[in-house]
Specification:
With about 130 residues, the chain is mainly alpha-helical. It has five helices and two strands, in the order H-H-E-E-H-H-H. The chain has one domain.
C-alpha cells in the first residue's frame, strides 16, 4: 500500500523510498520543481520560450531545468516550455540504439497515419511547415 500524501509544505528526504514519486525521479529533483511552481506559478500560465523565438504563441506545459544548472534558483535555472519543445530540449544529442528504434518500429507496425497527418509529416521533413499560421 502506498504511503499517505504529505501535508502541504512537507517534502521527503533525498533517500526516500515511500512510493509517492514517479519511478527513477529523485525527491530532491521533485522538491526543486515544486519550489519553482510555488515561486513562479504553473508553467501553463506562461508561453513557451522556444516557440516565442520562432514567432509562435504557444502555451507552456512544463518547467524545464536549464541543462548545466543546479536547479537551486527558480528564476534563473528554469524556463517554461511546451511539451514538444521540452522533449526536443531534453533529447537533443541523444543517440538511440538500434534495439530502441526496432522496439519503436515494432510498436508502430499495423498503425497508420491519416492522409492529413502524412502530409504534415512530409512538409515538416522538407522544412516547409506552416508553424505559426493558425
Amino acid at each position: 500500500m502506498p504511503a499517505p500524501p504529505l501535508r502541504p509544505g512537507r517534502t521527503c528526504p533525498a533517500d526516500c523510498r515511500c512510493g509517492r514519486h514517479p519511478e527513477g525521479v529523485s525527491t530532491r529533483y521533485m522538491a526543486r520543481h515544486m519550489k519553482v511552481r510555488r515561486t513562479r506559478g504553473l508553467a501553463s500560465g506562461h508561453l513557451c520560450v522556444r516557440c516565442i523565438e520562432d514567432g509562435i504563441s504557444k502555451q507552456a506545459q512544463d518547467w524545464a531545468l536549464v541543462h548545466g544548472e543546479t536547479g537551486m534558483d527558480p528564476w534563473a535555472d528554469y524556463v517554461p516550455l511546451c511539451r514538444s519543445c521540452h522533449k526536443k530540449y531534453d533529447l537533443r544529442g541523444v543517440v538511440r540504439s538500434d534495439v530502441y528504434r526496432e522496439n519503436i518500429a515494432a510498436a508502430r507496425r499495423g498503425k497508420h497515419h491519416s492522409a492529413e497527418t502524412r502530409a504534415k509529416i512530409s512538409r515538416s521533413l522538407q522544412g516547409n511547415t506552416n508553424r505559426g499560421k493558425r
